[in-house]
Write a structure and sequence with these properties.
Radius of gyration: 28 Å
Bound molecules: nicotinamide-adenine-dinucleotide
Strand order of the largest sheet: 3-2-1-4-5-6-7-8
Distance between the termini: 33 Å
């Protein structure tokens, strides 16, 4: 088959256009670069020369390759030059009227077979196509910034785009070394459609002072393995751009979760647009700098000292209890591992020993450290063994009645001043606290699975938690080398409240046949650098667990957009719970 589009015109050689021009020339194609006027054309060419020189310096390109690709690029300011192209890619500023005028012009200039592609992020491709007499040959090609590094291209078809044209465009993207995913014409397409709703919720969470910007960002990086926290990412994208994308999404969906959080409007009005202006959610050393500098609000209020913690009780004999006991013992704390029967306690202890053995095998622990850690853990079935513990952490079944019963017992047994913590991920901490006569001593410590590997702990203070109890837990986290983030006692804390609505949105996208499981997973991994796509993650977490969390979130906030996607409910009802049952969004049994 002939190579698709041997000659490509790129109109608008700014951030995206210049990057695309280089990528296209690298594939051996002729590139006709077109800018608005002569001065801009000169600057654009200089930018391309500079970027490619930088690539040579970084050994991403040889100087011969650079010379060859520069020879393929011409830059001018006459739109008529586009007449020679087989494909025109538009990368001018994000304004509908500007783009529609350009497409009408291109339609007059270019022969009927020429394919016209828009680089829009949030405008309607259909409306841009409607400005031409060839909507079947118009589509969206959404590259990501920086073009040389980002492998993803969303190939956006309108209802009128000829499927063959879309297929050719996807082949073209592959020839540039990119990974195309198919998307329909909807604000945000796949990646931004899922990403921006989440960023918006993070902005709203910050605005409501539920947690600090640092804690929200750390929670998402450490709890989900994301390359950047949401507020730092908003600063990088530009608050104004984010607001425009969200506004476009809201206009289409009328989903309140897409309505830009008021703080975004305030930041834009104040000219705090993120890194590019030197200040957004964070302050930066200078406009364009990535170096964060402290701003007034970053200065923390003084905190009381915590209570001393030498011995800790851990209640439970499951994955979390054993993992947490391991973390504590490795940090040199005396641990009582309390289970319902001695047999269960001994079994949990043996499991902990095996986990330590594996660490020794992997060279993460010495034999001596293993023996010392194990000697610090005492398995027991007698709750009175917790009488002298400075802090007791429960990690029993996620059932409020069971937890409350345990807290009532701990209240009777534990010494005055002992801190009582729950690891619950979805129940109100205050409901555990109210089962005791000392709610001021009760707090949430939400560890992540596997506890020995995951650095994050969400520290959840209720309206009654004493400040020195919060301080105790923060100090304990530091002592056991975990990263604590602080938040209030509401459903989902930070991580789940931001993660699960995003996962639910992905399920809805699938349910609406907007994109496939594979395309959505690929798009989020390549477009956002996520370690796993949403469906991979749902299958690992378990669809039943996910559904429970989504129901809790919906119940708490009553936001219509948070209602669990029916497809998730159907899969759970059908027993497709993910990897653990061999089938979820993917069939794992056959792999
Ligand atoms: N920057 C990103 O991260 C990003 C990512 C994906 C897609 N996009 C989209 O790509 C498009 C371009 O964005 P950008 O960030 O490269 O913008 P930019 O402002 O860096 O570049 C736009 C360029 O277009 C030129 N221009 C303006 N009017 C023109 C005309 N009539 N004819 C020819 N050139 C003209 C300008 O001189 C400028 O050089 C937008 O639709 C944007 O939404 C941007």
């Amino acid at each position: 088959m002939e190579r698709p589009f041997p000659t490509v015109a790129v109109v608008g050689l700014g951030t995206m256009g210049a990057g695309i021009a280089v990528a296209v020339a690298r594939s051996g194609r002729r590139v006709i670069g077109i800018e608005a006027d002569g001065a801009n054309a000169g600057r654009a060419l200089a930018r391309i020369e500079e970027a490619t020189a930088h690539a040579v310096a970084r050994a991403r390109l040889t100087s011969e390759e650079r010379a060859a690709l520069l020879a393929l690029i011409t830059v001018g300011d006459q739109l008529d030059a586009a007449a020679e192209a087989d494909l025109v890619i538009e990368e001018i500023p994000e304004q509908l009227e500007l783009k529609r005028e350009l497409f009408a012009e291109l339609d007059r200039i270019c022969p009927p077979q020429t394919v016209l592609a828009t680089g829009t992020t949030s405008l309607s491709v259909t409306r841009i196509a409607a400005a031409t007499g060839r909507p079947e040959r118009v589509l969206g090609l959404h590259f990501f910034n920086p073009v040389h590094a980002m492998k993803l291209v969303e190939v956006v078809r309108t209802v009128l785009t000829d499927p063959q044209v879309a297929a050719q465009a996807a082949d073209f993207a592959r020839e540039l070394g990119k990974e195309p995913v198919a998307a329909g014409d909807r604000a945000g397409f796949v990646v931004n459609g899922l990403l921006f709703a989440y960023l918006n919720q993070a902005a709203a969470m910050y605005e409501s002072r539920y947690a600090t910007r640092e804690d929200i960002d750390a929670a998402m990086r450490l709890g989900c393995g994301l390359p950047m926290g949401p507020l730092a990412l908003l600063d990088l994208i530009g608050i104004d751009t984010a607001r425009t994308v969200l506004e476009a999404m809201y206009q289409q969906s009328r989903d309140r979760l897409h309505a830009p959080a008021p703080i975004l409007g305030q930041l834009v009005a104040a000219g705090l647009l993120g890194r590019k202006t030197g200040r957004g959610f964070y302050g930066y050393e200078a406009p364009g700098s990535s170096k964060v500098v402290p701003t007034a609000e970053a200065v923390a209020a003084p905190r009381p000292a915590g209570r001393p913690v030498h011995s800790v009780g851990v209640c439970g004999s499951g994955t979390m209890a054993i993992g947490i006991a391991e973390v504590l013992a490795k940090a040199g704390l005396q641990v009582t591992l309390l289970a319902r029967t001695q047999e269960k306690a001994d079994r949990a202890h043996a499991q902990l020993a095996r986990s330590l053995d594996r660490s020794v095998e992997k060279g993460r622990l010495t034999d001596g450290q293993r023996t010392a850690a194990l000697a610090l853990v005492t398995p027991s079935a007698q709750v009175t063994a917790l009488a002298e513990a400075d802090l007791v952490l429960e990690a029993v079944t996620e059932d409020l009645a069971v937890k409350r019963e345990l807290f009532a017992v701990l209240d009777k047994v534990c010494k005055p001043g002992a801190v009582l913590a729950t690891t619950t991920s979805s129940l109100p901490v205050i409901s555990c606290a109210s089962a005791t006569s000392r709610p001021q001593d009760v707090i949430g410590m939400h560890f992540f699975n596997p506890a020995p590997a995951m650095k994050l702990v969400e520290v959840v203070s209720t309206v009654l938690t004493a400040p020195d109890v919060t301080a105790t837990v923060l100090e304990l986290c530091a002592a056991v080398r975990k990263h604590p983030v602080e938040c209030g006692d509401r459903a989902g804390f930070i991580v789940n409240a931001l993660l699960f609505p995003y996962l639910n949105d992905a399920v809805r996208m699938l349910e609406e046949h907007y994109a496939t499981v594979d395309d959505i997973d690929t798009a989020m991994k390549l477009g956002c650098g996520y370690p796993m796509g949403p469906f991979e993650l749902l299958d690992v977490v378990g669809l039943d667990v996910s559904l429970t969390i989504e129901r809790v979130l919906h119940q708490e906030f009553r936001e219509p957009g948070l209602a669990a996607a029916p497809l998730l409910e159907h899969l759970v009802a059908a027993g497709c719970l993910g990897r653990k049952t061999g089938r979820g969004f993917r069939d794992h049994a056959r792999r």
